[in-house]
Amino acid sequence: MTQVFDDRFPESFDSEPFLTNRRTSQRKSPGPAKKEEDKRPHIKKPLNAFMLYMKEMRAKVVAECTLKESAAINQILGRRWHSLSREEQAKYYELARKERQLHQQLYPGWSARDNYGKRKKRKRDNKTDSKPEDFSPRNKKQCMPYLPQDKTIDSPASSHGSMLDSPATPSAALASPAAPAPTHSEQAQPLSLTTKPEGRAHPPHHPFPLLAKASSSSSSSSSSSSSSSSQTTPPILSRPIPFTSLHPSLLSPPSPFHQAALHSHHALFQSQPLSLVTKSAD
DNA sequence: AGTCCTTTGAAGAAG
DNA sequence: CTTCTTCAAAGGACT
């Protein structure tokens, strides 16, 4: 009943990434319907590691594959995500953890349940009817190699083009040094889009179990975290990140949270020569 | 105009 | 405690 946001975070927060006010609001456009709900800002869920990874790499994949369909792009990104090394994934897990922390600080009373029912769930019922071979009306596209063959697939997008439009893409720089190099191997494969390789066969194995539950307590003193087992430091990062000290008010309006987070995070990683793999730098 | 598709991860709900 | 469900991004395709 008590909305925690309306009072604490007036319109001035419309620049917040967690608030739905910009183009991408919910899906396409909430529409004039139900204005009541539209008035109050829709606090979005913080992005998880994979979502952060997608935001960064989407433009790159789009440029490489000349694909635009998000469904196909996401499939490619999903494969690439698995191709990333643990260290590379760790960057995104850490970013996601920080996002969750900040989100909790900004909206202490917010719960993921608040957004339940905001979007109509499709709930594709099993699809036992349609076999994988039976191509559904929506033909799945493959990732065309594209690539001028002469140019390396290094970063067609990050070089000049598509990165311009998205303001949240400064993070793209983060991904550049982490070129997983499986790119070509990914594209080489026909990328069976029709049937997911194993679906969710691989259990929710957490590459970083510590990170998984680390956010349960963090340093925030808001929710009653039962475990609260000291600050579980990420297994890879050697230095503490002065991020928790960030206050919403400290975040300058023009620069969205992502930028701050990524910048601080990126700076952290940059301080170390070659990603965290080489912990011998120090 | 609204929903689906598609991915992984987080978190709540239900059993 | 385990399993299931929903939502986060995103943009073409579809209804």
From TrEMBL:
Main location: nucleus
Entry-linked PANTHER family: TRANSCRIPTION FACTOR 7 FAMILY MEMBER (PTHR10373), TRANSCRIPTION FACTOR 7-LIKE 1 (PTHR10373:SF25)
BP GO annotations: canonical Wnt signaling pathway; generation of neurons
Taxonomic lineage: Eukaryota, Metazoa, Chordata, Craniata, Vertebrata
Protein localization: Nucleus
Bias kind Basic and acidic residues: ranges: 1-11, 126-137
Family: Belongs to the TCF/LEF family.
DNA-binding region: 43-111
Amino acid composition bias (Low complexity), ranges on this chain: 166-183, 215-230
Name the UniProt record assigns to this protein: Transcription factor 7-like 1-B
Annotated keywords: Activator, DNA-binding, Nucleus, Transcription, Transcription regulation, Wnt signaling pathway
GO molecular function: DNA-binding transcription factor activity, RNA polymerase II-specific; RNA polymerase II cis-regulatory region sequence-specific DNA binding
InterPro entries to which the protein is assigned, alphabetical: HMG_box_dom (IPR009071), HMG_box_dom_sf (IPR036910), TCF/LEF (IPR024940)
SMART domains xref list: HMG
Disordered: annotated segments: 1-45, 103-258
Feature: compositional bias, Polar residues: 184-195
Span of domain HMG box: 43-111
GO cellular component, one term: beta-catenin-TCF complex
